[in-house]
C-alpha cells in the first residue's frame, strides 16, 4: 500500500484493510467450498446418478441475501461518513488556488506567489484547494494524501488535506487530458511551518494575490462602477464574500468563489436585485489566474473598514506565461 | 426434460444421408445470404475473431510500451491512439456483441425449441450493419487514429483533439443499430416462439440472461447514440452543448455516456453468467440451485445497472449527496451478484462433478468474477474510490469482469458448444492446458495492476514514475502467458474442424434441450417440435 501523509490517511487505510479482509474471507470461502465440492463429489463412473440434492431452504437463501446486505450497508455508511469529512474543508483551512492547463499545474500561494508543477504546503495546516482549468478536464491527484478531485474548465471544484509528514510527494494528473497527460506530474512539498514561511519569503512575489487583484480591479475598470462607498451604478463589493445575495429573479445565492467568478464572466446570468444588468462580460478578456486574484481581492475587503491593502494602483503585473 | 413429439412441416430428408445446417447448402453465397441463425452466428464468430485480434495487438503494444517508465516503443500520440483503439474495438466490436451475437444467435432459438429467430432476415441485416459500422470504425482508428480514449470525454474530444473523433463516433453509432436490431429480434423471439410447454420459469437460465441483456441493449443504446450525436453536433457546428466556453456543460456528456456505458457492463457480463448457468448443470448433473433467484437476479442487475452510472463520477465535481446515492445503489449490485455466486456454489453440492474443459472455464469465470466483483466494492465505497478511481486499480477491476468474466466465458461457451456447432470434439488435453494458461496468465497480467492502482499509478500514462516499474514489468510478462492462452485454442479448434473426433448428439450427457437434437443440428433445428414438461436440466 502507498504511504500515507495526510490526516485522513489512517482512517482510509483502516477502511481499505477492513474491506480487504472481508473480501479475502468471501473469496477464500467460495473458492474453498467449490474446490472441496469438486473433489468430494467428483464423478466416479459415467453412469453415476447424483444423490439427493440440497433441500431448498429459506434460511439459507434468506441468509445470503440478508447478510451481504447488512455488510454492504455498513461499509456504505462508514465510507459515506469518511467521504463527507474528506469533502468538507474545515473553517481554518488556508486556501491555495490551483489552475490546471495542458500540461502543467499552477498553484498560487496565499501571498500571491505562483509556482509551476510544485505545491509547497506547511505541515499540520489544513489546506483547501480551489481549482479550475484553462482548457480540458484534469484531475488533481496526490496518492499519499488519498486526495483526488477533477479540475474542470468553467467552474471551481475544491478539495482539502492536512499534511502530516514533511517530505516530497508525487502529484499526478489522473484524468486523461491529451498527448502529454502522463507528463502532467509534479511534487507536493510538505515543509515544517518555519521552513515554509522562509520559503514563502524567498518565493514570494512582489505583492500578494489580493494586491494583484486590487491592481486588476483598477486596470479592468471595475472600480468605475463598483465604488467601495456604495455610490454608483453597481453594488459595492466590500464585505460581499460569504453573504447571501438576493437576485432579480427572486433567488438567493451565497457569494462564494464560484458566484464571483460567474458574476465576472457572465454577469447577466445572476443580476443583483435592484440593479440594472449593465456590467459587461469579461469572458475571454481575463485569465483564470486573474479571476482568482480578483477573488482574493474581493475576499480581502471586509466590512466595514476600507480595503486593507492600500497600494497605489499600478500597471498589470508582469506574468511569466504572458497571459493578458 | 423434453419429449419430442408432433412432427411439423420440416424439409423432407433424403434417406440415408445425415443432413444438417452445414451440409444442406454449399458455397460462399449460401453463407453471405443465409438467413439461418446458426450460420449467422458463425459469421459473427469470424468477424469477432478479427476484431478481437486487432484489439489484442493494440493491447500487446501497450504492455510493451509500459515495460519501462520512460515513454518509448511508441510516441505519446501513438500511445494515446493505441489505448483508444484497444478500448473502442474491444468494447463495441467485441465485448458487446460477443456472446449474444454468437451463442445467443445460435442457441436462443434452439433452447426455445424454435426453427429460427422471429425475423431471420433482420438478423442477417444486423450482421451486415455490424460489419459495415465495424469496418468504418476500424478504418477511422487505423487511418489517422483517435486519441480521446474510448470514453470521449468533453471538452477534450470536442475542442482539443485533432484526430478522427467524428468518423469514429459515426461508426460506433452505426454499430449501435446492429445491437438494437439484434436485441429486438431476441426479445420478440423469446416472447413469441417458445415451444409448447415452455413457460417462463422453464426457460433455460441462458435464455433469461440473453433476454435481460436484450432489454438493456434496447433501452441503453439509444442514449449512447444521442450522446455521440450531440458530440458530433458540438464538434462540427460548434454548438455549445458540452463546451463551457460556449455555455455548455462538460459533465452532461459524462452523465449521458455513463448512463449507457454502465449498463453496457451488464450487456457484457449477463450472457457470460448465462453460459455458466448452463455449463454447471451439464457437468454436475444437477439443475442450478435456486433457479428462480438466479433468473430474477439477472433482472435485478439489469434494472439496478441503470441507476448507478454516477459511480464513475465520484471525483468529477458532482454533488457529494448524489455521489452517496450512487454509492449505495452500487452496493446493491454486489448483492445480486452474490446471490448468483452462492447459488452456483451450492449447485456443486452432492453433484456428480465432471471436470472437463468447459467446467474449468466456468470455474475460472467464478474465480475471476468474484475477484473483480469484490474489488468493485472498494470502488463503490466513496473514500476508497477517491484514491482508486482513474488508476490502474479500475483498469484491473474491469478487466477482471470483462476479460476474466466475459472473454473467459466466450471461450468456455466455445468449448461447451463446439461439439454441437461443428459436430466435432476439440482435443481435451490441449484444451485443459489452454484453460489453465488463460487463468494463470490472466492473473499474472492483471493482479499486478491492482497493486499499481493502490500505489497511485493513473491510467492512460505513456510514461510513469519509476517507483511503479516493478509491477508494470510483472504485468507485461504475464501478458505473454495470457497470449499463449488465446493462441492455443485458436490452433486446436481449427485443427479439430477436420481431425476432431465425431461428437454425437450429446457428448456431455446434458439434459439441455439443445443437446437433444443432432450435432450439428438440422437446418430447422429439430426434426420435430419438442414439448417441454419440466425445468431445464431436471435429472
Ligand atoms: Cu491533466
Ligand atoms: Cu491529464
Give a structural overview.
- The complex is a heterodimer of chains A (324) and B (539).
- In chain A, 34% of the residues lie in helices and 20% in strands.
- Chain A has 324 residues and is of the alpha+beta class.
- In chain A, α1 runs antiparallel to α2 and α4 crosses α7 (288-300).
- The radius of gyration of chain A is 27 Å and the shape is elongated.
- Chain B is mostly helical.
- Chain B has a single domain, classed as Cytochrome c oxidase-like, subunit I domain (Cytochrome C Oxidase, Chain A, Up-down Bundle).
- Chain B has a two-stranded antiparallel ribbon.
- Classes of the chains: A alpha+beta (324), B mainly alpha (539).
- At the A-B interface, α1, α2, β7 and β9 of A face α3, α6, α9, α11 and α12 of B.
- The complex binds copper (II) ion (2 copies).
- One copper (II) ion binds at residues 100, 138, 173, 175, 177, 181, 184 of chain A.
How would you state the average pLDDT of chain B, rounded? 90
Task: Count every helix of chain A, treating DSSP H or I runs of 4 or more residues as helices.
Answer: 7
Largest sheet of chain B: 2 strands, antiparallel
Provide the structure class of chain B.
Answer: mainly alpha
User: What is the radius of gyration of chain A computed over CA atoms, rounded to a whole number of angstroms?
Assistant: 27 Å
Shape estimate of chain A: elongated
Task: Summarize model confidence as the mean pLDDT of chain A.
Answer: 83
Poorly predicted runs of chain B are 1-13
- The CATH homologous superfamily of chain B corresponds to Cytochrome c oxidase-like, subunit I domain
Please state the overall shape of chain B, judged from the principal axes of the Cα atoms. Answer: globular
The number of distinct structural domains of chain B comes to 1
- Fraction of helical residues of chain A: 25-40%
Question: Which quaternary structure do these chains form?
Answer: heterodimer
CATH superfamily of the largest domain in chain A: Cupredoxins -  blue copper proteins
CATH architecture of chain B: Up-down Bundle
Amino acid at each position: 500500500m502507498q504511504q500515507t501523509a495526510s490526516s485522513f490517511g489512517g482512517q482510509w487505510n483502516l477502511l481499505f484493510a477492513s474491506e480487504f479482509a472481508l473480501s479475502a474471507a468471501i473469496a477464500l470461502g467460495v473458492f474453498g467450498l467449490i474446490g472441496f465440492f469438486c473433489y468430494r463429489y467428483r464423478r466416479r463412473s459415467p453412469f453415476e446418478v447424483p444423490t439427493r440434492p440440497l433441500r431448498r431452504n429459506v434460511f439459507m437463501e434468506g441468509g445470503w441475501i440478508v447478510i451481504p446486505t447488512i455488510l454492504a450497508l455498513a461499509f456504505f455508511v462508514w465510507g459515506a461518513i469518511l467521504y463527507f469529512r474528506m469533502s468538507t474543508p474545515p473553517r481554518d483551512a488556508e486556501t491555495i488556488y490551483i489552475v490546471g492547463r495542458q500540461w502543467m499545474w499552477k498553484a498560487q500561494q496565499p501571498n500571491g506567489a505562483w509556482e509551476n508543477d510544485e505545491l509547497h504546503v506547511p505541515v499540520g495546516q489544513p489546506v483547501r484547494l480551489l481549482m479550475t482549468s484553462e482548457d480540458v478536464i484534469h484531475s488533481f491527484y496526490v496518492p499519499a494524501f488519498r486526495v483526488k478531485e477533477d479540475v474542470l474548465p468553467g467552474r471551481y471544484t475544491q478539495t482539502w488535506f492536512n499534511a502530516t509528514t514533511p517530505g516530497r510527494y508525487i502529484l499526478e494528473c489522473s484524468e486523461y487530458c491529451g498527448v502529454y497527460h502522463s507528463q502532467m506530474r509534479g511534487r507536493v512539498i510538505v515543509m515544517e511551518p518555519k521552513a515554509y514561511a522562509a520559503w514563502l519569503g524567498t518565493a514570494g512575489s512582489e505583492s500578494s494575490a489580493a494586491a494583484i487583484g486590487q491592481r486588476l480591479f483598477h486596470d479592468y475598470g471595475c472600480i468605475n462602477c463598483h465604488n467601495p462607498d456604495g455610490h454608483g451604478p453597481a453594488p459595492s463589493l466590500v464585505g460581499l464574500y460569504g453573504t447571501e445575495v438576493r437576485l432579480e429573479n427572486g433567488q438567493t445565492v451565497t457569494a462564494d468563489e464560484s458566484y464571483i467568478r460567474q458574476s465576472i464572466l457572465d454577469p447577466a446570468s445572476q443580476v443583483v436585485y435592484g440593479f440594472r444588468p449593465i456590467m459587461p462580460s469579461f469572458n475571454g478578456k481575463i485569465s483564470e489566474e486573474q479571476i482568482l486574484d480578483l477573488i482574493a481581492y474581493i475576499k480581502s475587503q471586509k466590512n466595514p473598514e476600507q480595503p486593507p491593502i492600500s497600494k497605489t494602483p499600478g500597471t498589470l503585473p508582469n506574468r511569466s506565461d504572458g497571459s493578458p | 426434460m423434453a419429449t419430442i413429439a408432433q412432427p411439423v412441416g420440416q424439409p423432407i430428408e433424403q434417406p440415408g444421408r445425415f443432413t444438417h445446417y452445414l451440409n444442406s447448402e454449399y458455397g460462399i453465397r449460401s453463407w453471405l445470404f443465409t438467413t439461418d441463425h446458426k450460420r449467422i452466428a458463425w459469421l459473427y464468430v469470424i468477424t469477432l475473431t478479427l476484431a478481437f485480434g486487432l484489439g489484442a495487438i493494440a493491447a500487446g503494444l501497450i504492455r510493451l510500451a509500459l515495460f519501462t517508465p520512460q515513454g518509448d516503443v511508441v510516441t505519446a500520440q501513438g500511445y494515446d491512439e493505441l489505448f483508444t483503439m484497444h478500448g473502442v474495438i474491444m468494447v463495441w466490436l467485441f465485448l458487446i456483441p460477443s456472446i449474444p451475437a454468437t451463442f445467443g444467435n445460435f442457441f436462443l432459438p434452439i433452447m426455445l425449441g424454435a426453427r429460427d429467430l422471429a425475423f431471420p432476415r433482420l438478423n442477417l441485416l444486423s450482421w451486415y450493419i455490424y460489419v459495415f459500422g465495424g469496418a468504418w470504425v476500424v478504418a477511422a482508428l487505423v487511418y489517422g487514429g483517435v486519441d480521446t480514449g474510448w470514453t470521449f470525454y468533453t471538452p477534450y474530444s470536442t475542442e482539443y483533439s485533432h484526430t478522427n473523433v467524428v468518423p469514429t463516433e459515426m461508426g460506433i453509432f452505426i454499430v449501435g443499430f446492429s445491437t438494437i436490431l439484434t436485441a429486438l429480434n431476441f426479445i420478440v423471439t423469446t416472447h413469441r416462439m417458445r415451444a409448447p410447454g415452455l413457460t417462463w420459469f422453464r426457460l433455460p437460465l441462458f435464455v433469461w440472461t440473453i433476454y435481460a441483456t436484450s432489454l438493456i441493449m434496447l433501452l441503453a443504446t439509444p442514449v449512447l447514440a444521442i450522446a455521440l450525436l450531440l458530440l458530433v453536433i458540438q464538434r462540427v457546428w460548434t454548438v455549445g452543448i458540452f463546451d463551457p466556453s460556449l455555455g455548455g456543460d462538460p459533465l452532461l456528456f459524462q452523465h449521458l455516456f455513463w448512463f449507457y456505458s454502465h449498463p453496457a457492463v451488464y450487456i457484457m457480463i449477463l450472457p457470460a453468467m448465462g453460459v455458466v448457468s448452463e455449463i454447471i448443470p451439464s457437468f454436475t448433473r444437477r439443475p442450478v440451485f435456486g433457479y428462480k433467484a438466479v433468473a430474477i437476479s439477472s433482472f435485478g442487475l439489469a434494472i439496478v445497472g441503470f441507476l448507478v452510472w454516477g459511480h464513475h463520477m465520484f471525483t468529477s465535481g458532482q454533488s457529494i449527496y448524489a455521489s452517496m446515492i450512487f454509492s449505495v445503489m452500487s452496493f446493491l449490485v454486489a448483492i445480486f451478484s452474490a446471490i448468483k455466486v452462492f447459488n452456483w456454489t451450492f449447485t456443486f453440492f452432492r453433484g456428480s462433478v465432471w471436470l472437463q474443459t468447459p467446467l474449468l472455464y466456468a470455474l475460472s469465470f467464478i474465480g475471476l468474477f468474484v475477484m473483480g466483483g469484490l474489488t468493485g466494492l472498494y470502488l463503490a465505497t466513496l473514500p476508497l474510490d477517491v484514491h482508486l478511481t482513474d488508476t490502474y486499480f479500475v483498469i484491473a477491476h474491469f478487466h477482471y469482469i470483462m476479460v476474466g468474466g466475459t472473454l473467459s466465458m466466450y471461450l468456455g461457451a466455445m468449448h461447451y458448444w463446439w461439439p454441437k456447432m461443428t459436430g466435432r470434439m476439440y482435443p481435451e488435453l490441449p484444451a485443459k492446458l489452454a484453460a489453465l494458461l488463460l487463468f494463470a496468465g490472466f492473473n499474472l497480467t492483471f493482479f499486478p495492476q491492482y497493486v499499481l492502482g493502490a500505489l497511485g499509478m493513473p491510467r492512460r500514462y505513456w510514461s510513469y514514475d519509476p517507483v511503479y516499474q516493478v509491477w508494470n514489468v510483472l504485468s507485461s510478462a504475464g501478458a505473454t502467458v495470457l497470449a499463449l492462452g488465446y493462441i492455443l485454442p485458436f490452433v486446436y479448434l481449427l485443427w479439430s474442424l477436420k481431425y476432431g473426433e465425431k461428437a454425437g448428439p450429446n457428448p456431455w450427457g446434458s439434459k439441455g434441450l439443445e443437446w437433444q437434437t443432432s450435432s450439428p443440428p438440422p437446418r430447422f433445428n429439430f426434426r420435430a417440435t419438442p414439448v417441454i414438461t419440466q425445468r431445464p436440466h431436471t435429472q
